[in-house]
Amino acid sequence: MERIDVAVIGAGVTGLASALVLAGRGRSVCVLERHPRPGLDTSTHNSGVIHGGIYYPAGSLKSRLCIEGRRLLYDFCQAHGVPHARCGKLIIASEDGEIPRLEALFTRGVENGVEGLQMVERAFIAGREPNIRAVAGIFSPETGIVDAEALVRALLRAGEAAGVIFLPGTPLAGADSRADGIEIRTGREAILAGTIVNAAGLYADEVSQMLGGEPFTIYPVRGEYAELVPAKRPLINALVYPLPHAAGHGLGVHATKSTAGNVWFGPTVKYQDRKDDYESDRLPVEEFADAVAQLLPTVTVRDLRLSASGIRPKLHPASESFADFLIRRDRQNPRIVHAAGIESPGLTSCLAIGEMVAGIITAEKS
Question: 0.85 cut: is pTM over it?
């Protein structure tokens, strides 16, 4: 039987970043991934935004790890040649009645310690995004974009260079707790791990159950995107967001210009039962038209095409508005460390999450 200090379940950005940091602290690490390649679920099915940290309740892990992770992510992308841009973002009020909500969001961002935030007027917005309809806005200069697929590849390369063993096409098949660790079975082999990091994304609740950990529920929430036709891409220069949904389920259908120049609108919000259903009952492109017109009045449905979709692993049902990341030791089996419920701003936060996970694991064994 193979023996390892830490086995990470899941090779999205959370799992890969955790493995990288742990290997850097001298632990032997393997990463199990059920897919043939890393990052094929939530990590690469998103807007690719490096968030500033404006939206999240003060003191929450989402707030703190977003701000810490953003700084780490920019440094990592620079060092490893990952395409990215610190392009800045506008959050806009489309009419005067939205300005009090905009001001409240600005106050939250300042309280969270987000650097450089500015309340801006119509003239500033017109200078950056002349085609946007807005009466006021928040400008976040530290927000940016990243090529998520390139980030996954870079995290994998860096981890392997640090000694991480990557096991693709290796789903967790079973596990048994022992006095000296947790024996995990993959169908091909057995591995005895001193600690398990549950970074299984949409399947973190099922993995916890298989490992003998505490019960919790992951709620799969699909987000769909539309895309501007290439001829209309010059209408958007960077990132433009409406005010977030009042119910707290998303940040609203926003405009994202990717590192490759594509312009996406989304994501929508749909709670669903299946964790692998990206395509059934897709919204028609007409469903995006009104939300897009709120941002870009000159765009019509003829300028839009359906694009990708993604599924967020939420820790709260539709009846609730917020749940923080779950990053801690399991309360039933302390050999498990959860990094679960990692939805937005999970991409931004991944390296800070990795640092936190590694800190939990190494604190008692250093």
Answer: yes
